[in-house]
Amino acid sequence: MSATFRARWATAVAGLAAWTIAVPWLAEAVGLELDVATRLEIADHVVPGAIMLAGVALLVARGGSPGNLVALGAGGVAFLTGLWISATHTPLILDAVEGAAPWDVSLVHLSAGPPILALGVWMLLRGQLFGSAPGGRREE
User: Which helix (H) or strand (E) holds 100?
Assistant: First the structure.
């Protein structure tokens, strides 16, 4: 894969990580406030977002050459942080189903988890994103 292709994907992942971190405060700024402690927002948004940013930084710094464990690790980090965000917001969605929390706030808070989870699964299953040529052949 070309360096441009890898840079675009690293930028996309970094953008999702930044969205993960910013979501609670952006939502509050537009009136989609959720009454939870700041420490929970940090645990549910800032920590996984920061881990994602660290994974992207490592991937960019070390490169994603064929067979590189850093590239596999980036996929694993994306999967685990997406799972983390999705799992920690499942109770919020259940509250929305029961009418105890507003749907708009619940969906905005969950918005980063499923895309990151899907990206992580795709990166892990398609091992070629940062390393192999189409068809699973390694680039030389």
Answer: none
